[in-house]
Design goal:
A hairpin with a 2-residue loop joins β1 and β2. This protein has a two-stranded antiparallel ribbon with strand order 1-2. Helices cover about 70% and strands about 0% of the residues. α1 packs antiparallel against α4 and α5 packs antiparallel against α15. The chain is mainly alpha-helical. The two termini are about 25 Å apart. It has one domain.
Amino acid sequence: MSTSTLPAPRYQPNRLWVYLTCVYIVTWYLQLGNRIGLLGAIRFEFLLGAVLSLGAFSTYFSTPEKNSPLFGPVLFLLGVFTCYSLFSWDFSHSWTIYFDRVVKFAMLAVFLSVFVRTPWALKMVVGAFLLAMLKLGQEGFVGWVTGGQMWQNQGVMRLHGSVPMYGHPNSFSGMAVGCLPFVYFLFPAVSRIWKAALLLLLLFCTIIIIFTGSRTGYVATIGLGLVFFSLSSGKAKWRYLILAGLIGVTALVFLPDQYKERFESIFTMKEKEGASAETRMEIIHDAVEVYLAHPLGVGVGAFPLVRMEMFGRVQDTHNLYLELLTNLGPVGVIAFFMVIYQIFKVNRQVQKRLLGCRSPDEQFMMGVSKAVVAFIWARLFLGLFGMDTYEIYWWFAIGLSGAMWTMVQQGATDKTVSTRTGLSHSGDQKETAYDKQVGLRLKRR
């Protein structure tokens, strides 16, 4: 019997929209339009997104639900993006980023927050995301084994991704680091088949993080490890510390020297080939000068053009925080971190509401909520060396956070719908308390 303490849900979800959202997630992450010529020719991703957008707005305006606390800060951030695209030093480039990234990725947050209103729907979309990550990880694993995706970069043999958005080793490593929170926090809450899938994903992610040779990924993994340690409690902290020590010793013994040297170069600033560290220092200097010359910001994605005009160098910031400051100014920095703060706050509220709950659906939701928080921390660590302001990661976290907030407000637990995804143990329950209540009512009638 369910041990849920939350109030009864108000309505059932439309499963068709949930299925289509899952298809959209898989389509986008696997870049199916580039893989399958027909899908690219008919612009399948665009058409699916358009259909989902119509469904999302129709559902939103027809369902009298209270907006999550994320609504205001997200609207403010979108307003900042809009203004800084209109009044940009590189108008055409800014509007390309605005429509191709900001608007498009923000719609994923809308789809998730509108369509995902039950644990079943949450399991479906998280499962779709994890399956897409498994496929990308499997391709990276095969590319590592065969050498087909390994080639030299900065004097090191580095693993590259199979799709354009993860083609660069740093991006591919960032993808793998972003999967770790979901592996760590969902593992206790899922069924055996998904435990096996998560362990396989962990193997793929470990290989990707190591053999991409990305110092960004190395730093983010260490930072994420500290987050995991801080979120652990009691004996779990010591178990985690022992595990981390064993992994560290194993890496030192068995890793090829080139990757050990790559890691050491984080501290020594000495590289086998190229001058990446010196280039980054030059970018930081130029970014500070650009900001001092344009303290209100130069516009969405306009830093390379302004840098070229001022210094004759075109490379972008390679840093989330400098990208925010130079592109959007102090207003943009405040708007962005208002959203980040609200993501953390909303998930604290979700976790507080679920504290002490033992039903499988609530445990799964708790795991997703903790994973989202750690995922944001991972992206913030990766942002030390990468430009992520206009990427999909934030919108994915916003959508999941808003959906879970709505669910705990409604009390949508495993008594709302039957669980058939296998992502949690609730699929093993033959009859929930809700089912029994419905049966009693039917008998009385």
